[in-house]
Design brief:
Elements: H1 4-19, E1 29-34, E2 39-42, E3 58-60, E4 66-68, H2 77-86, E5 92-96, H3 99-107, E6 128-129, H4 137-147, E7 152-155, E8 159-164, H5 167-190, H6 198-208
Parallel strand pairs: 6-7
Antiparallel strand pairs: 1-2, 1-5, 2-3, 3-4, 5-8, 7-8
Length: 221
């Protein structure tokens, strides 16, 4: 089976994403990219994650060519491909419809530095892209343009998309951004959140570079 390990990881993390309610039903999608092969493994369209088998995962090029798999790829394959094309370090993309991130996406408001965990994105703000129809080139273009140098962006009236150096780090980032969004939401229910300033965030981002055990891949904060 072509990209067997990547297919198995997509099935595994799809179940994790659904169980954690980062996406419900068949919403959300996951991909892993192998730059040496120039191939992307991506979850299939419209199949429940607990019903998805490794052979259901689709292998394709970043330009829409289906290389292996009998199922239709996620409708957001172009969104995933855009991240791999524009962010050379990206090896995995996770797109969720998690409740709190999507709440801010519906408001058209960014996630701010109400907690230092936002440094995990490589930026002090997670911007919100304007609404575009799902599964279209316009959505992919708007997401990349809004995202800037960071690894996370909200999609207006839609959800969240993040990328990482592997599936573990991308999934962890999606979890952390949902945690951040819930904190921001809850703080706003009480009053005005205290947002960390540029100097504080610069210090946090510098420390994130050496977080964790030597030789390990960071997956938290």
């Amino acid at each position: 089976m072509l990209m067997k390990e990547e297919r198995e990881l997509i099935v595994e993390y799809g179940k994790k994403m659904s169980a954690a309610r980062l996406s419900t039903g068949t919403s959300g999608n996951i991909s892993i990219y192998d730059p040496e092969k120039g191939l992307m493994a991506i979850s299939p369209s419209g199949i429940d994650y607990f019903s998805t088998a490794p052979e259901d995962v689709v292998i394709m090029t970043l330009d829409a060519g289906i290389v292996d798999g009998s199922k239709k790829p996620s409708s957001e394959w172009g969104l995933h491909a855009a991240f791999y094309k524009h962010k050379p370090h990206a090896r995995a993309v996770v797109h969720t419809h998690s409740m709190y991130c999507t709440t801010f996406a519906v408001l058209g408001q960014p996630l701010r530095a109400v907690h230092y965990v936002i440094a995990d994105t490589g930026a002090a703000t997670v911007p919100c892209a304007p609404y575009r129809t799902f599964g279209t080139p316009e959505l992919a273009e708007a997401a990349i343009e809004a995202c800037g140098p960071g690894d996370a962006v909200l999609l207006g009236n839609h959800g969240l998309v993040v990328c990482g150096r592997d599936i573990r780090s991308a999934y962890s980032l999606a979890c952390n951004m949902e945690y951040l969004a819930e904190l921001q939401y809850r703080a706003m229910c009480i009053g005005q959140p205290n947002v960390l300033n540029d100097q504080q965030m610069a210090q946090a981002m510098e420390r994130f570079k050496t977080y964790g055990q030597s030789g390990s891949k960071k997956a938290g904060y």
